[in-house]
Amino acid sequence: MIGDRIFGGESGIHLTLIDPDEQDPVEAGEIVSEASAGGTDGIMVGGSTVSGQAVVDQTVKHIKKNVDLPVILFPQDTSGLTGRADAVFFMSLLNSRNPMYITGMQMRGAPIVKKLGLKPLSMAYIVVEPGGTVGYISDARPVPREKPEIAVSYSLAGEYMGMDYTYLEAGSGASEHIPPEMVGAVSQKTNSKVIVGGGIRSPKHAKSVVEAGADIVVTGTLVEEIDDVKGAVSNLTNVIHG
Ligand code: 1GP
């Protein structure tokens, strides 16, 4: 079934993140066709500044038209939801200072997720320095890069609250990805599936976080900036799939 590898909790997964504000829906469909040919395992759709539900809906429509891959929403608020997707990262930004990003949006979104029949994937979302746009918009207090123990504590807190995934987020387009030492500490000391994203642009970057224990690697900016999406994704998936 679609998404079995991801929803079954397997490791060695690559997800391609599409920000609906970065291209029109038709172009998003073309990009994911290339990413699929390069071996990506699924598509995430979301961004920090999405300009409305209609664009999310149309983006997922064109993605679904072009590829037979699971589509997981990565919403910044309820406007990031559409029933055309398969699942949603139902996340709480644990190190935000604003309760809207910890439980507020979740309260508003939960009935919509239920009504749309989206599969909720429960996730502790942890913003790490530099944190980028998402860190700024969500009023996060980014975890210092040299403090893996703080990331472990947040991840464990999420695990004990019943969350299946921990997403270590450096911020889209980050100058440096999550330090492997932090990925390793979270992977070893928690039972969470560890997702790592932000600033991963090369097979070398991907290899370093996978070897440290990342179960899922997310790349977004790369496919926005490169012409040969298939080639770039293929280079990453060769490393991530092992
Ligand atoms: C952003 O972690 C994701 O939420 C992906 O980051 O755009 O830097 O790949 P990049």
Tell me the CATH superfamily: FMN-linked oxidoreductases
Number of domains: 1
Radius of gyration over alpha carbons?
A: 16 Å
- Helix and strand succession? HEHEHEEHEHHEHEHEHH
- By secondary-structure content and strand pairing, the structural class works out as alpha/beta
CATH topology: TIM Barrel
Query: With helices defined by DSSP (H or I, 4 residues minimum), what is the helix count?
Result: 10
For the record, the CATH architecture stands as Alpha-Beta Barrel
User: Beta-sheet strand percentage?
Assistant: 15-25%
Average of pLDDT: 96
Give the termini distance in whole angstroms.
22 Å
Would you report the number of β strands?
A: 8
Largest sheet: 8 strands, parallel, barrel
The level of helicity is: 40-55%
C-alpha geometry: globular
CATH class descriptor name = Alpha Beta
Bound small-molecule species: SN-glycerol-1-phosphate
Biggest β-sheet: strands ordered side by side in the sheet: 1-2-3-4-5-6-7-8
Uncertain parts: none
